[in-house]
Automatic annotation (TrEMBL):
Superkingdom per UniProt: Bacteria
Name under which the protein is recorded: MazG family protein
Domain annotation NTP pyrophosphohydrolase MazG-like: ranges: 26-103
InterPro entries listed in its UniProt record: MazG-like_dom, NTP-PPase_MazG-like_N, NTP_PyrPHydrolase_MazG
Short name of any one Pfam family annotated for the protein: MazG
Amino acid sequence: MNEFDRLKQIIARLRGEDGCPWDREQTHVSLKPACMEEAAEVVCGINILEDTGNGDNLKEELGDLLLQVVLHAQIAEEEGLFTLEDVCRGISEKMVRRHPHVFGRETVNQSGEVVTRWNDIKKAEKAGKEWTDDYLPEAFEEAKALIDAAKRRKGFE
């Protein structure tokens, strides 16, 4: 069994009847603070890597962020919404669609062209779903508040 499958099994067990009471209580909403904190800690790991050349902290923090993804996907599967396999399929398909210069017949010569094409493809994909962007300003404010709370919890304010 590969380590990714092992992680999925561990999370399913933690959420199972004979698992951990804390893990079973978690919801998408209750995990928001941890998700934001782990994302900030990945940034910290990148900074440590850049300053010292040591990737140990980044490896650990990426694992913690991956845990958040797998845990959210497990909860979604329990709710009948989607599976981790669906998440992986979705991002794989998106990467292939948004890189026609790699997986298709288009040619680009500069990264600026890649960004322009990416944005064009994204706009076409989001057609009819533009209303989802209406949630972003509030989400950014919530993310900032969650990060501020994490800083207080860790004693940085």
